[in-house]
Design goal:
2 copies of one chain form a homodimer. Helices cover 25% and strands 28% of the residues of chain A. Chain A is of the alpha/beta class and 544 residues long. Chain A folds into 4 domains: 164 residues, FAD/NAD(P)-binding domain; 115 residues, FAD/NAD(P)-binding domain (3-Layer(bba) Sandwich), CATH 3.50.50; 114 residues, 3-Layer(bba) Sandwich (FAD/NAD(P)-binding domain); 84 residues, 3-Layer(aba) Sandwich (Oxidized Rhodanese, domain 1), CATH 3.40.250.
Chain lengths: 544, 544
């Protein structure tokens, strides 16, 4: 069996290596446009910041070492320009010489990846304009920073890569602004209220974040001097374009291979509509595990799972890839974030009867050094009681919270099941009631009627406008609000009738819940707890 | 409804507080022998080491603050001495005055906890003998250390508490020995080969660990001078008894309440054989979620889940507690450990057709600062392909690995499902192929015949005695073994016939697997890979 693999970073090398292990008799050849294969794309921002000191750490394997280890033939500097399905050949051009060659295949694996989107505006060719896709990009950006050429930088794009680059430039002492055209950073990844919270933390940590702002032009004489946006022109010595990526699939036009929004459409065996052709990695479309709908997941993690699956299927085993949950985590300035599954509006769009909860919980025993808080949002279906999505912010192990959610959501976990898991606990790691179980308990209280609450998003949207705020914190914290000592409540409140609309607010939500509990007992019917309390929602500024 | 709760630490306070929230009209009273309630028992070793500086951090709530917050009445210094089920009363004695009282109940909750086991040997009453159960124990041990009274300490008992105390005494500069009667530390928690590995790391970190050694006598004139064991007498200024705990259930004798090994037997609603009596926490027996058999789980985490469940059931909701997995994590000198589900022999005893795997995998991107390794052991059932148990060692986030396993095992996850999870990945947190997915992949290779291997335990038991060791590491590492450059293997090995019994060993197992893959292709039928390689199994000393 002669197998050609177009592309040699994560998905291509994984598929090729695994296939050789499954069937050493297969003749497997990787054709790749670049000079390097198998580099650590996700590590590039950290090289910029010097967190990864040495650039050799970015290269996982050279073409030679990979080839020796796996038995896969690798041709670098070879760009595939067309595919002839009828004759089972591809035409390729040597990048340096322009020389054309034709390669035959029995099976073809499309793993040609994606390229950074460069917008059609003026100035993108100036010195000081960067993208972040290959080791070369990271090396040249860090080089310019270390030569003192970059004091101010504008990062265009508030997605994971943009924010990671921003953090790492800031680590190097660069004054960084991040702009994004969307209403929030991480659009589609974090629910809006969590994205706003994250923006505030980043501002507190010295990153200037401007959303709803479009890039119009990069201005300069030879090199970047200003970045002109839809709002104003910003002084800058560098402009990093992190506006997303586009699949490298232009050469597949008119081949009849089924495409979807520029990506190659595959079934759960990573097979295209041509049974001799597979596609994996950033150029391929996978599906959402929950909705079954196409979802693009240009991530190293997906590339590896899909690559393994493609190799197994090529070798004659039937392996199904169940799809992604859209999981992501990132370390950002001052805060780590994570998300998986469906966001609140995605869940509604998918037809679920949605209930959500937001909690602020300890991330380890409160008395253990380094203890901090998680902000956890769970999204669930009221009727099936299954968890659909989870998002988390915090200084600590957001990846743990996400991986629990990933495992649970993948297996159809209900809120009730989450509540009673025998999670690991010792003070250096967690709390006696696990942060996720704690959150599940609050959601259970809400679903079962023991807790009546507004989410921070409902509050921000004005749901509490006709409510009187009662401050249930141990000491008064909300300017202008009546403070109530919940421990003294032993009957109806003198100044409020039992049908009064009362919004109960404390620091995180727990005392407000205890107050609501008492007030209900004394006949109150219209109280609401503000989830996440003043920890999440500020009552000092920006109050609506 | 009049509810009496006997005991006021984790399970008692949780049950009482939650019940009041569910039904504020219930009259709930806690009777507790001690002066404090609701203290952080799991934090005590960390107070000893000064990791937790201030003793006030150990107290979660005073009886007064708890009572004000929850509406639960609390009587401290009151020891229950008998239960009269017929008349629904308990008899109690005030500890200070000896005065007797009788309390009536509609429902009774037994949450009287457990006490440290003190062996019936000489010298346990000497100054310098400690247990570790209440804040007072920790405060007096740290006090003695800080007064310079303790230079050498012997900890008797290699369970979680004993090892945590050992780590914290060592932090304070005390020379520490840990002895245990069992063959290994953490007997029943870690499988033997992992326990041995942990012992070696602790030795490297300055803790003297002696197993198979029994305490015979504590010797001294007024205060501890020597600890006499079945092997030898050890000089010591202090002896910490961490030999386990015994349920405080003596007062229940002859009540007809069904007991099991000293604990109170309950159903999944936390109810005893008397429908008016519940039991929760360290004095109660819960069940193993996988085997359905009784399992004692005297842990703060279990206390909280069971307490919540008991309260919900008392308030008329039917909540089932599905039981525990025996999850545990701990930070020990030089290494963190975790376990959940069935150990290898437990799984065999439960009738499973068991397959296990041990891997050594990166805990985050290898190039990210602080990256280290996990040693992960998975225990699965060959026919159902379900994961039954997991154990982990490492410097990093062992709690994450465990919590994934807990969630998966609780929901019946197969190895195949674990392999394809969309886990969270970014370089500061994890690897592109998640450590758990990586381990699942190796186990899949083993289950599906792509990998033939010996586990470290099989190797230690002599399974490879008739095998020739081939060293597959990049450079020769095993004294006396033939080194093979796997990249040069393009046909049968000149010196070994194709039916030769060959044990392939590299640093972690990956290159040995690649070598096996090639050798199989060239007709070799008797090769075995050593799982975990030389990272886990030492070929320099103690070789069998």
């Amino acid at each position: 069996m002669k197998v050609l693999v177009i592309g040699g970073v994560a998905a291509g090398t994984k598929t090729a290596a695994k296939l050789k292990r499954e069937d050493r008799s297969a003749e497997v050849t990787i054709l790749t446009k670049g000079k390097e294969i198998s580099y650590a794309g996700c590590g590039l921002p950290y090289y910029v910041g010097g967190v990864i000191e040495d650039k050799s750490a970015l290269i996982v394997n050279t073409p030679e070492s990979f080839s020796r280890l796996t038995g896969v033939a690798v041709q670098t500097g070879v760009e595939v320009v067309s595919v002839d399905r009828e004759n089972k050949t591809v035409k390729a051009v040597r990048v340096e010489s322009g020389e054309e060659s034709v390669f035959g295949y029995d099976k073809l694996v499309i793993a040609s990846g994606a390229s950074p989107f460069v917008p059609p505006c003026k100035g993108t060719d100036l010195e000081g304009v960067y993208v972040m896709r290959t080791p070369k990009d990271a090396i040249s950006l860090r080089g310019a920073v270390e030569e003192g050429k970059i004091r101010r930088a504008v990062v265009v794009g508030g997605g994971f890569i943009g924010l990671e680059v921003a953090e790492n430039l800031a680590l190097k002492g660069v004054k960084v602004s991040v702009i994004d055209f969307a209403r929030t950073i991480l659009p589609g990844f974090l629910d809006e209220e969590l994205a706003f919270y994250t923006e505030n933390v980043m501002l507190d940590n010295g990153i200037n974040v401007a959303t709803g702002v479009a890039l119009e032009e990069i201005i300069g004489d030879g090199r970047v001097e200003k970045v002109k946006t839809s709002k104003r022109a910003m002084k800058a010595d560098a402009c990093i374009l992190a506006m997303g990526i586009r699949p490298n699939t232009g050469y597949l036009e008119n081949t009849g291979i089924e495409m979807f929004k520029g990506t190659v459409l595959v079934d759960e065996h990573m097979r295209t509509n041509d049974p001799a052709i597979y596609a994996v990695g950033d150029c391929a479309m996978v599906k959402n595990r929950l909705t079954g709908k196409p979802q693009w997941s240009p991530m190293g993690s997906t590339a590896n799972i899909a690559g393994r699956g493609a190799a197994m299927n090529l070798a004659g085993h039937e392996i199904s890839y169940p799809g992604v949950l859209g999981t992501g985590v990132a370390k950002l300035p001052g805060i780590c974030i994570g998300r998986t599954g469906l966001g609140e509006s995605q869940a509604k769009d998918a037809g679920h009867d949605v209930v959500t909860v937001l909690t602020v919980v300890d991330d380890k025993a409160h008395y253990y050094p380094g203890a901090s808080s998680f902000i956890i949002k769970l999204i669930a279906d009221k009727s099936t009681r299954k968890i659909l999505g989870a998002q988390v912010l915090g200084k600590g192990a957001v990846d743990k919270v996400m991986d629990i959610a990933v495992t649970g959501i993948s297996l159809g976990m209900t809120v009730d099941q989450l509540s009673a898991m025998d999670f690991s606990y010792a003070p250096p790691f967690s709390t006696a009631i696990h942060p996720m179980a704690q959150t599940a308990n609050v959601l259970l209280n809400k679903m079962d009627g023991a807790l009546d609450s507004f989410t921070p998003a409902e509050y921000a949207a004005g749901a509490a406008e006709s409510y009187t705020i009662l401050d249930a914190a141990p000491a008064s914290t909300i300017p202008g609000a009546r403070h109530i000592d919940l421990t003294a409540v032993e009957g109806p409140l003198p100044d409020y009738p039992q049908d009064a609309k009362l919004l109960l607010v404390c620091t995180k939500g727990k005392r407000a819940y205890l107050l609501q509990n008492r007030l209900k007992f004394y006949g109150y019917t219209n109280t609401k707890v503000l989830e996440g309390g003043t920890f999440f929602t500020s009552f000092e500024e920006d109050e609506e």
